[in-house]
Write a structure and sequence with these properties.
The chain is an all-alpha fold. It has helices at residues 3-7, 11-24, 30-40, 47-58, 65-88, 99-103, 105-126, 129-152, 160-185, 190-217, 220-223, 229-232, 238-246, 249-261, 267-277, 279-297, 305-319, and strands spanning 92-93, 96-97. 47% of the residues are buried.
Length: 322
Amino acid sequence: MNLEQLYTLIGPDMKAVDMVIRDRLHSEVVLVRQVAEYIISGGGKRMRPALVLLTAGAMGYQGSRHHEMAAVVEFIHTATLLHDDVVDESALRRGRDTANAMFGNAASVLVGDFLYSRAFQMMVAVNDMRVMQVLSDATNIIAEGEVLQLMNCHDADVDEARYMQVIHYKTAKLFEAAAQLGGILGGADPQLEKALAAYGMHLGTAFQLVDDVLDYSGKEAATGKHLGDDLAEGKPTLPLIHVMQRGTPEQAACVRKAIEEGGRDDFPAVLEAIHASGALDYARARAVTEAELARVAISGLGDSNYKKALLQLSFFAVERNH
């Protein structure tokens, strides 16, 4: 099952979210509109807003505030992408030039700030302290995750535990918040709200681990980014960590040098070490485990087509090729 089939259930809701996004992107400042519309219109899976809609649907929510909250989550995510691409000096995302490549670093950072602040304006308008608490906490933790990742760059001594902390903070936290929001809007009791949050956290972790695998095995046309970008930036992701821990001394030394120096010169040798050591299989197996934990987390959720879609989403997260 692909994402389009999964999203059939929430098609009208996703259109409503897109309308909110278009409306709330408005600014009298022309450059803000240009940069924001450029990155928002750049495609993407829209998984985080879909999580808000699916979990709200699974809870039987009948209102329209989930459209606003889904748009808020997408704005926060988009702001992180704008800032990420500047920090990473990325030139390609989703198969086209990044916003910083098109408009410059300063514009990208400032429009990212605009999207964060617009998200908080929308959050306040909902007038729900629980919603504000979840989203403000998530935004703060995501920022900490960005800094943790920055600290880990070119550090070949990063172990699996440190790397998983980065994933949980930087990527999984917004998935967690998105799933939790649907529960809050739908009136979930504390236990079920916690279960939905756990589902989101495990799903987001699985999603990022597969991204790590695709950076060394995907097709550029499908992933929309250059293979080996993580290595070029000196990021010690799980496949590289596995080689250093489980590979031969020669393989470990090759990866260590590549992480510490960055760039693409060592990419062919690193790729060979990754495949020879079974690092991709290991990372994908970790992702599969996380997806299984996501499904277990919502075992107590009442049966519905929305729950089926949430379960299918966990399979998509690990079976995808982009």
